[in-house]
Amino acid sequence: MTNQIPNDLFEKGFLTEDQYKKIEPVASGKIVSVFYELRSLMYLGVMLFTTGAGILIYENIGEIGHIVSICGLVLLMLVCFWYSFQHAAPYANGQVKSPTPYYDYVLLLGSLLFISVQGYLQFQYGILDEHLEYSTLVTATVFFFIAYRFDHLGILSLAITALASFWSISISPQKWYSGNFFTETDLHITGIIFSIGITGIALLLDWKSIKKHFTFTYLNFCLLIFFVSAMVGLFDDAGYSIYLVLIYSGCAFSWYEARQNKSFLFLLYAFIAAYVGTTFLLFDTVLANAYEFWLLYSILSCGGFIYFIIRYKNYFARL
Amino acid sequence: MKFAYNETNLYNLQVIKESKSWMKHHFISAEQFQKISEAFKSPLYHPNLLIRILLFIAALFALSGVTGLLSLFVLSIGEHELFISIASIFYGIGSFVFLEKLFIGQNQHYKSGVNEALIYHACGFTIAGLLGVFDFNQHTGFIVSLIVLSFAAIRYLDLLCTIAATLTFAGLAFFEFYNIGGIFQQIIPFVFIVIFTALYFFIKKAKQQEKFKYWQNNLLIVESLSLLFIYAAGNYLVVRELSVALMNLSIEEGADIPFAFIFYGLTVLIPVAYLYFGIKNKDIILLRVSLIVLAFSVFTFKYYFSLGHPAITLSVAGLALLAISIALTNYLKIVRNGFTRENFHTEKWANMHAEAFIISQTMGGNQVTVKEQFKGGGGGFGGGGASGDF
Questions:
Q1: Confidence class of residue B155 from pLDDT cuts 50, 70 and 90?
Q2: What is the pTM (predicted TM-score) of this model?
């Protein structure tokens, strides 16, 4: 069954002949786009290579082959960066289109090799041995520079991750559930301060119109860290009211940013955080010791919530 | 069987979705899209993906509350197993009716998140109840699940139910032959290849037909899964490990599974054939599946004939992939044989923000070597209550 929609629209006069001729081959599969396939392959290539190289540099240390391969990696890294600088478009505050389709991946490869090489130097020569945490700060600095200079969202998120890990916060859902949070008593406070601080910087940059399209990534990480930290505080600390206030203000902010950025993701965060916070509050105060109400509560709250979303669907569609 | 939605509304929704993606890729102007979306108005409620997720979660919570209350009620009447099973069937069917009458009929929901929650909920209780009635017999279990899931997949155009139904079908085929025993167990791979090849070509035919035009995505999923099953049935690693695990086959040193050479051959041939026909027929599904199974074939051979240097293998494979994909990207600068490197489709998750997040999640691991030596810091960040559960 070939797609009839272009035909139908053309016959009814919604498409010009020119447009129809462009759209029809794509819709009917005469022209096939392998855009995502190529990108996935490149991404996979970078991932496999850097993983392999990352293991390789810690094997057979001291042998000739080892030194050669390290030199090779450094050389490859330099080539990647050289290529990036050679082909880079001049810096601009707005979004910059990649000069070639694989440019982003070459840059990514170079940056990931930088981590590997840096880790190796650390390991072998003990640079910064006394202050190991500063090495992540170095990574973060270099990555922020790369991200801004070459306009690379992926490296920006790596930079934010590195900066967060300098503060011992690891941004990874995989680590959240395996990590033992409760032994590190004040990490959630660090998380809250960190996310508020970075959000402030991100909003300032946004206001100054410096790389406005980066704001989403900043806010996404910050909101995640903020809500998780605040919830840990809520469940963990005796005086939870402060965290409840934090969660509600976070939700208000998230809602506001959702409207600003037209982002449904932020809306999702706001709703879930507010629901968890409110449920916690209710069962700690009004409904304490009334767990038989749980079933009724889930029906009423979630049913009401669904009704609310559908009732105001036009608002949410426009958001 | 017909789907549960109004056909004109569904068609209009598809027109709007399609023209939106054209607008995003600058085939048509925003004004044109405006005009089209006014002419093809659709009252169907089909929110965007994140709202759907939100509604899905909320609906599941609400349903769990309803289920809890009803089960308290049912258990207070009687605790006989048959009674509970029949109650469960009625509850499941009731959920289907509720979905059709209230959400699809009255409120025009189409894949809204609430729909999905109700569909899976209804399938679950109907199947569980029927299983209980049939005393958890595996044989009928497979058939019952297949019927209920296929019903949901066809009537509500649901994709997850389609996947589940196809998997159940494969499970049924495997189970039937496995239970006969003897030589029938050994020919399971060949039976699978025959069944799913037939299914594949049947689906290819069905996709061409006008009357199946609203099931294109469902057919596409069955098509891809059929290709994967054909490959898996011929893959040496799958056959060998399953033979050892399920048929108590013991392979002595130096010996091999029966018909080993056939499976070695198929492991190589099937991906190559997929790739060849994918390119020749400009079939993106064959092409995508071929890439996945090609990688698995490489893994299969590395698994049994490893040279013992995983790091080198990874690096070389990565470099090769990079080189090939960069060369291909260069090669497809112009449209060749109908293939282009330009982007014409909007994939839901394939935006730049999602990609950035994936990069930070998968590549961040390279920093671990540094972090492991941390003296003071490096703590995990545990979110005890982040699940939204109580």
A1: very high
A2: 0.82
Q: DSSP letters along B319-338, please?
A: HHHHHHHHHHHHHTTS-BTT
Structural domain ending residue among the three candidates B160, B179, B198 = B179
pLDDT: is B308 or A263 the higher one? A263
pLDDT of residue A5: 82
Q: A256-280: b or e for each residue (b if 16 or more CB lie within 10 Å)?
A: ebbeebebbbbbbbbbbbbbbbebb
Shared domain check, A215 and A172: yes
B386: in domain: no
pLDDT score recorded for residue A293 = 78
- Chain B from 193 to 212: CB within 8 A of any A CB: 207-210, 212
On whether any CB of chain B is under 8 Å from the CB of A32, the answer is yes
**Domain with B333 in it:** 314-362
For residue A76, the enclosing domain spans 33-159
Q: What does the pLDDT read at residue A2?
A: 60
Evaluate whether residue A314 is within a structural domain.
no
* Burial class, A91, CB count within 10 angstroms (exposed 0-12 / middle 13-18 / buried 19+): exposed
Rounded Cα distance between A8 and B18, Å, is: 12
The pLDDT tens digits of the residues spanning B41-59 come to 888 888 888 888 989 999 9
Shortest Cα distance, chain A CAs vs residue B37, angstroms: 11
ipTM above 0.85, yes or no: no
Residue A192 inside a domain? The answer is yes
A142 touches chain B (CB under 8 A): no
Distance CA B318, CA B309 (A): 14
Show which of A159, A185, A202 is a domain's final residue: A159
Instruction: Tell which of A8, A20, A21, A47 to mutate to test the B interface (max B CBs under 10 Å).
Output: A47
Tell me, yes or no, whether A239 lies in a domain: yes
In this predicted structure, the answer to whether residue B147 has a pLDDT above a threshold of 80 is yes
Name residues 60-99 of chain A within 8 A of B (Cβ).
Answer: none
- Whether residues A171 and A155 share a domain: the answer is no
Residue from A222, A160, A158, A172 nearest A192 by CA: A222
How high is the mean pLDDT of chain A?
Answer: 83
Identity of the amino acid at A297: Y
Question: How far off is chain B from A207, nearest CA to CA, in Å?
Answer: 20
